[in-house]
Amino acid sequence: MLKNNRGITILALVITILVLLVLTSVSLGTGYSVITDIKLGRTVSNMALVKAKAETVYEQYQFSKNSEDLIGEPVSVDFLSQGEIQLIEQNAGKTGLAGSTWYKWDAETLAKQGLDPSLIQDKETIAFFVNYEFDEVAWNKGTTYDVGTTKTFYYSMTGLNSLYKNRYND
Questions:
Q1: Residue 146 is inside which H or E element, if any?
Q2: Do residues 69 and 57 make contact, with C-beta atoms less than 8 angstroms apart?
């Protein structure tokens, strides 16, 4: 005589849990990738807005030749990696980026230019940096480590565009 089984076996329960764990791990990995892509796209879009405004400012400067027309606080800092410098110079078709002047556009500068100050997305972002001569925009992201030290990372629009294109062309 067959015994009437009405419950779930331990084996079926273990298999179900394993399947759910696999599905969860795949979903989390995909979700993280989507969030990363959205943040990268948002940053590239914000840099494009700043770049468009900077191009207008530089055109005014070229017409007037008045250095006061260049917006932002001049900074002479070599903050980009050698690889990014080469990429930007290759894109611009000229050399000399390392010694050129960058202009810092903080939230106040963005507002004065009619741009939304919230383009600086969080408290760790200091500013955008504009290089009029090379038609380039850089963005920085500060990261605070557990020991209280802060390291700032800089990203150029050319470098991020290259990363963005490589992600979606593969």
A1: none
A2: yes
